[in-house]
Amino acid sequence: MSLVGNNVLLVRVDSGINLGSGHVMRCLALAQAWQDGVGDVVFVLATESPNAEARLTAEGFEALHINAKPGSAEDARLTMKLAHKYGASWVVVDGYHFGGDYQKIIKEAGLNLLFIDDYGHADYYPADIVLNQNIHADENLYRNRASYTKLLLGTRYVLLRREFLRWQGYKREIPEIARKMLVTMGGSDPQNVTLKVLQALKNIDIDGFEAVCVVGGSNPHYDALKDFVETANLPVRIERDVKDMSQLMAWADVAITAGGTTCWELAFMGVPFVGLSRAKQEAILLQETTRIGMSLNMGEHQNLEPCDISEVLMRLIKDKRQRSTTISIGCLNIDGLGFQRLIKAMNEGEI
């Protein structure tokens, strides 16, 4: 079936071992909302990611591949040509390898451009809309932008997938002792921070404690992690390439995670969490969520030993008051209406 003329949204995003899956997952949230109320969606990828592609096609989206270095001028030109071919009403670009020159090529082709950003990594922003859904989002990050560029900043614009939105208004019971823990270090975790966390769980001395460890589809350490859990006889179940994270978050009393999109999902679901950072943007995010009381930030993972992690986890497990506070702050900041606000802004800005 041809999608041309069906109010098409064209999304340029990548996923992989060194890129993670967070960019695809938040674009998927926007794509679902667009599909539900606006039109059709086409994803364009330049990297090989079978798991991400399978998820997109299962959701009813077309996933195309281009042969170009991600973020290059050739990438931008091929994306521009596909946008014209499909008659796309908007192009969405999400990834740290897309800079100002990339945006300029898309805009000079007469296309509407939404650029999803985290920390102002580009030297120039000529996009029609720049979306930064983080607490630390600030207009000063985008001083070098076009006069027409609209900024959508802050957690009012957090994009959540359908699986989470069905839990709108969910109120969880907060136990005296948290015995159910979710471990999730992102879609790929090339540094295998998950193993350090599992080593920390050996020190959790709580009757009835159990954990679910989510391993992304592009995580290269899956087999080694399973072997460690079995050898250490940990009360941990490893789940791979989970399609519905909301169910596990509803089950969990607490979580430990990397800094990224998952933090907003946990906050929306009312799950108190401890964060470990693996990169600059994650460190910034976790510093801010901890500053407002939404999380406990342990800092950069390479500076931590398993005993450091287990000590903080034990404190959170036993402190009902702390968990109640973080839940309240998280729910105040993430209301699940981000996609509505974004699509409204896109409709207002259409040429």
Described by strand count, sense and barrel closure, the largest sheet is: 7 strands, parallel
Q: How much is the radius of gyration in Å? A: 20 Å
- Specify the CATH class of the largest domain: Alpha Beta
Which strand order spans the largest sheet, edge to edge or round the barrel? Answer: 3-2-1-4-5-6-7
Structural class: alpha/beta
One letter per element, helices H and strands E, the order comes to: EHEHEHEHEEEHEHEHEHEHEHEHHH
Looking at CATH, which topology of the largest domain would you report? Rossmann fold
Question: Span from first to last CA?
Answer: 26 Å
Uncertain residue segments? 1-5
Q: Tell me, what's the shape?
A: globular
Oligomeric status: single chain
Share of residues in strands: 15-25%
Q: What CATH architecture label of the largest domain applies?
A: 3-Layer(aba) Sandwich
SS field, number of helical segments = 13
- Total number of strands: 13
What percent of the residues sit in helical stretches (DSSP H or I)? Answer: 25-40%
Mean model confidence by pLDDT: 93
The CATH homologous superfamily of the largest domain is called: Glycogen Phosphorylase B
